[in-house]
Amino acid sequence: MVHGYTVVMKFRVVLEYDADTQSWSAVCPELPGCTSAGTTEEEARQGIAEAIRLYLAPSDLRFPAAAKVVEVTVG
Question: Distance (Å, rounded) from C-alpha 70 to C-alpha 37?
Fold first, then answer.
């Protein structure tokens, strides 16, 4: 089974340069804990894009037998 998205989604990302470490950090505020970093701004941007994809990727989960699991379409 292939999981994926059929639409393009945009997320806000906060990029900050830290002169002490000479590196860039990237944070996606809408996705708690979704962060990345890089030695260049472009590296941080690529890293956060990958972090967002991984954050949103479906995963196999086990639910109690009595649980009702449904899918919701947004958009």
Answer: 35
Classify the phi-psi angles of 22: left when phi > 0, otherwise alpha if psi is within -120 to 50, otherwise beta: left
Structure confidence at residue 7 as a pLDDT band (50, 70, 90): confident
User: Which residues, including other chains, have CB under 8 Å from residue 63's CB and lie 6 or more apart?
Assistant: 69
Q: From the CA atom positions of the chain, what is the Rg in Å?
A: 16
Q: Which residue has the tokens 């990237």?
A: 26
Joined together, the tokens standing for residue 38 give: 């890089």
Per-residue pLDDT of 36-47, as tens digits, reads 999 999 999 999
For residue 16, give the nearest of 36, 31, 34 by alpha carbon: 36
Q: How much is the pLDDT for 74?
A: 80
